[in-house]
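Q: Sequence in, structure out?
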Amino acid sequence: MSIELEKYKTIVFDCDGVVLDSNITKIDSYFRTAKKLGATDAQAQALVDHHVEFGGISRYPKFVWYIEEILKQEATPDLVQEYLEAFSLAVTKGLLRCKIADGLHELRLATLDTKWLIVSGGDQQEIRALFEKREIADLFDSGLFGSPDNKDTILAREKENGNIVFPALFIGDSKYDYQSSARAGLDFVFLSDWTDVPDWESFTKEHQIKVLRNINAFIK
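A: Exactly. Output:
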């Protein structure tokens, strides 16, 4: 399936499962965080299942849900922060090792006049530090954005301030990526190789979403 990249003035990328092969790293980190803080295997798996079901959404509401619905405790700011800090420690090492998408630099060279930005469910400070260490931050000339703001908020804000110029394309790998891009009026392409959406084939068919396997497919 060919995509007319030359028509876009802005390309928005999700991070996990699109730029980085990090979905498995995130899943493992959720499980290990829950276990470290006293969960049973069943409780930890419930957190993982919730994370996968709501892919692309920030870790903050996921931990609030886990504490309230699975642990049946009050999600106090201090308790949520304890989970966030444990998760950040668990995930950082894996993110430094996971694969960067093949073809990313080639795609940047093919779209030199196009604004690039990251809009992720991951922690914004974590993403910015990670991309500097992985030496890919400079590819995204229009910024690296993430939680605690959600994708709807980020897209609306960056449209308002002129950082997203239309026509614009969102490249993602989750249902929320598609939904938030549609609400913001961006075109959308779903990448299938690294997605953790179990029913992605039926979902993309139902919504008539363009699908490519990976970043490299844009330049082949």
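Strands lie at 10-13, 115-123, 144-147, 168-172, 187-191, 210-212.
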